[in-house]
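As noted in the main text, all predictions were made from sequence alone. Below is one such record, for MaoC-like domain-containing protein.
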Amino acid sequence: MTIKRALFNYISVSRYSSTSSLLKTGDKLKQTRIFTCEDLVDFSKVSFDANPLHLDPEYARNAGYNDVLVPGMLVASLFPRIIATHFPGAVYASQTLRFRSPVYVKEEIIGEVEATSIRGLKNKYIAKFVTKCFNNTGVLVLDGEAMAVLPTLSPTQP
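Prediction:
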């Protein structure tokens, strides 16, 4: 199984929400993800983040949480994933983040990017996005703004 196919086995991708075939201001792109304990262990190995709030349920409960917390940076990784899914070859240039509410393992998270400005630059495009993540009850858990260099304004469908 290819890596791309393995990734799409557990990531739901919404269709590009536009009546046009080109990205325009106001268009939204979304993906849904449920983070697992295995995701947290893998992220810990790659990031060297061994915070017990992310790995030890008892520690997390003693700290006042319902369960282990998904690292905020892992949740935020939905944003470049959404953009790259629809615009292969995009270069992620910047991201601001505000962590609003805890995210728990096995909680469905909806990541959303909304284009707020787009400008041409030679044969590429600079796009700014408002970025948000919600849990399955609609609570905003993470937000910010991103900028990416897109090779095209024509989105591809996974």
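The beta strands are 11-13, 28-34, 91-99, 108-121, 124-135, 140-150. Residues 3-36+70-150 form a domain with the Thiol Ester Dehydrase; Chain A fold (CATH 3.10.129.10). These features were considered when defining construct boundaries for the mutagenesis experiments described in Section 2.9.
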